[in-house]
Amino acid sequence: MIVLWIVLIVLIVLAVLWVFALHCKRKQPGFFGLDDYHYAHRGLHAASHGIPENSLYAFRLAVTAGCGAELDVHLSKDGRLVVMHDESLLRTTGVDRNICDMTAAELDELRLEGTNEKIPYLEQVLPLFSGKTPLIIEIKTVNNNHAELTSRVCRLLREFPQVRFCMESFDPRVLLWLKRHRPKIVRGQLSCNFIKDRNNLPLPLAFLLTNLLTNFLTNPDFVAYKLEDRNGLSFRLCRKLWGVKEFNWTIRREEDADAAVRDDRGVIFEGFLPQ
Hints:
- The chain is α/β, with parallel strands linked by helices.
- It has helices spanning 2-21, 56-64, 90-93, 104-107, 122-129, 146-157, 172-181, 203-210, 215-218, 233-242, 254-262, and strands at residues 39-41, 68-75, 81-83, 135-139, 165-169, 187-191, 222-226, 245-251, 266-269.
- Strand 5, helix 7 and strand 6 (187-191) form a beta-alpha-beta unit.
- Helix 2 packs parallel to helix 5 and helix 6 (146-157) crosses helix 7 (172-181).
């Protein structure tokens, strides 16, 4: 009997700790003015029409359509803020090298997806959105460069005060840096089911990130979760108990966008233009 009571107490303590670990900020009314837009994933791109993802062309089209945009930022070998999703350039340029190993001069020689579009830098993208639609800026960390990359992005954003934006990352260290050094910046935790899609992550880390168990340290303003994975227990608890703002990626059907709007979820979309 004593053993059963001990087991029960241990389970209750673990449950309380689990709920505490999921802690987020509650959704703010109007969500900082970012709630009125859908966000084009990597710009309003369409490879079949010669519009590469994360290109200046795709971002101009997003602004023209009245959409916000989600984009990804890496750090080059010489410290430039490169707008690109993959660390490897193979898929988008045909060159089998990583961004962190290349200088801006080398990157400038490449073209995106067989077009004449160059790889853009963040300072080229921000003016397109100044005073217009907002941005979701994803910080892509490699080789423990989270602090340098995040600080460089924040310094550049100060030069564009008319750009509305929030920042997100899969790497909780980015959110922790923002919490400590730029607490007024709206920050979001990206996640998905890393246990199913490991991406070479060790299982304990995949478990932590899948279940948002670093939230108590980073205290995010929103959580951007993969649409197909959003019904996991931890994320459901996070939404129900803490009332955090939810974004979904990547929405590819009008009916999924409509459902997200009805449920007050943010829409990060591609492949169609939501009504």
